[in-house]
Design a protein that fits this description.
The chain is mainly alpha-helical. The chain has one domain. It is 66% helix and 5% strand. The chain has a 3-stranded mixed beta sheet with strand order 1-3-2, with helices on both faces. The relative contact order is 0.13. The mean pLDDT is 91. The protein binds zinc ion (ZN).
Length: 190
């Protein structure tokens, strides 16, 4: 049983395990006044007509050392709570990508859509594995649709989908190839 209390505890543990700041909808004001979040949200959402504030209310995003989540941690139905756990897993993959590639990641992610497609496919590997672990059937179509709001075009989304179909064949066997997904499954004992 996934309860609000347990999910809040889980998020606090992940903050410690990954040494990362995690902001949620309650911190919107603080995040909007952060120059770095503003810069990255603008780069990613460019081409979207929506204002940064509106974009942040519906999209999660990672910057070096911090994650923005577009929901209130530990609030919602069991389905929504599982969705929150999977979303955190996705963003923690980006945290690791930031750490692995450092400044290169910032430039490549902002400038190269091919690089971003690759980074998203890797992070979504975690979405797939966690979905199966929580007895959810992942939907590659819906997973990748959202990428349009992160400035990826159809051709990049097709590349991500191809990667995901391969990852999916492995994930549906119950294999845990993604380090973050494995860590989260260990936490929940699943
Ligand atoms: Zn992502």
């Amino acid at each position: 049983m996934i309860t609000e209390e347990k999910v809040k505890k889980f998020f606090n543990q992940m903050r410690r395990d990954y040494d990362i700041a995690i902001f949620d909808l309650q911190d919107l004001g603080r995040v909007l006044s952060s120059a770095m979040f503003d810069d990255i949200a603008r780069k990613i959402s460019r081409g979207n007509d929506t204002k940064i504030e509106e974009w942040l209310k519906t999209h999660s995003v990672s910057i070096p050392g911090a994650i923005w989540l577009c929901f209130e941690i530990g609030e919602g139905t069991e389905d929504e709570l599982i969705e929150q756990i999977i979303t955190l897993g996705h963003e923690l993959n980006h945290t690791e990508q930031w750490r692995d590639y450092k400044a290169f990641f910032a430039i490549a992610y902002a400038v190269s859509r091919n690089f971003r497609a690759w980074a998203e496919a890797r992070a979504m590997h975690s979405d797939l594995e966690l979905s199966y672990a929580f007895n959810r059937n992942p939907n590659i179509y819906w997973l990748t649709r959202n990428l349009k709001n992160y400035r990826l075009e159809e051709k990049h989304i097709r590349v991500v989908s191809k990667h995901l179909r391969v990852y999916n064949h492995i994930a549906e066997t119950g294999a845990r190839g993604n380090g973050v997904a494995r860590h989260i499954c260990d936490y929940w004992g699943i």
